[in-house]
């Protein structure tokens, strides 16, 4: 499989290119472009949170711990005095960072269901309502972040599959096929829970219709066909 540096680098580069393209084409503002690039980079780490010794799980749970502590500060800022507020935030961070992470490590197996397209959909289903409800981003930006999380996580799976093939010796490793899969069919209960999680996340998410105005510049099907015919005629005249 690809190492941590490769996953981060490739996900960051490809996500940045795609986010910059969205900005140039008018699909995203400058701030949204930055958020999308970061979301794609984070997505490139998520499939490895089932690896107990990986750097990814350390970074992700530190991020989750900081997020949980931040939520405590926001929710209880007017109800607790300063030292109580800081103590509650610290306890919340440590709770996520150690016991919850330890429990997660015990319940997950590397290259299991978290290394699948279904898990990528679950990551997206969590990212969209989180961005919309917790960080108060608009619906269009929230869905864009979710899409980039899925993009980055899928890049991770593709890289793992590519690293399962040794071109020099034309040999396929035993790990081939364990990363880029629909789900882990050996864990039907977990897969069912993931499907339910996707449904819940979609229900909590805002309408994706906010993205429709971004495509108003695209030609109608009839206009597109006429444009293609005209382009073909011009090319034919040029080469004739």
TrEMBL record:
Keywords on record: Hydrolase, Membrane, Transmembrane, Transmembrane helix
Organism superkingdom: Bacteria
TM helices/strands, residue ranges: 12-38, 59-77, 83-100, 112-135, 141-164, 185-204
A molecular-function term among this protein's GO annotations: hydrolase activity
A Pfam cross-reference name: YdjM
Name of protein: Predicted membrane-bound metal-dependent hydrolase (DUF457)
């Amino acid at each position: 499989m690809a190492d941590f540096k490769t996953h981060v680098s490739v996900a960051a580069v490809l996500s940045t290119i795609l986010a910059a393209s969205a900005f140039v084409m008018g699909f995203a503002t400058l701030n949204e472009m930055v958020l999308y690039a970061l979301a794609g980079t984070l997505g490139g780490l998520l499939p490895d949170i089932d690896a107990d010794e990986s750097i990814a799980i350390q970074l992700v749970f530190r991020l989750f711990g900081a997020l949980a502590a931040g939520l405590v500060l926001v929710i209880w800022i007017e109800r607790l005095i300063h030292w109580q507020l800081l103590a509650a935030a610290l306890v919340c961070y440590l709770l996520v960072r150690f016991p919850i992470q330890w429990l997660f490590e015990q319940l997950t197996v590397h290259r299991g269901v978290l290394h699948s397209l279904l898990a990528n959909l679950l990551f997206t289903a969590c990212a969209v309502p989180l961005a919309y409800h917790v960080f108060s981003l608009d619906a269009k930006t929230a869905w864009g972040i979710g899409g980039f999380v899925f993009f980055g996580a899928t890049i991770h799976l593709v890289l793992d599959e590519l690293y399962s093939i040794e071109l020099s010796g034309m040999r396929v490793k035993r790990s081939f096929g364990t990363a880029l899969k629909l789900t882990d069919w050996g864990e039907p209960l977990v897969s069912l829970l993931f499907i339910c999680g996707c449904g819940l996340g979609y229900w909590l998410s805002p309408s994706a219709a906010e993205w429709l105005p971004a495509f108003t510049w695209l030609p109608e099907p009839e206009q597109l066909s006429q444009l293609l015919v005209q382009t073909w005629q011009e090319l034919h005249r040029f080469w004739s």
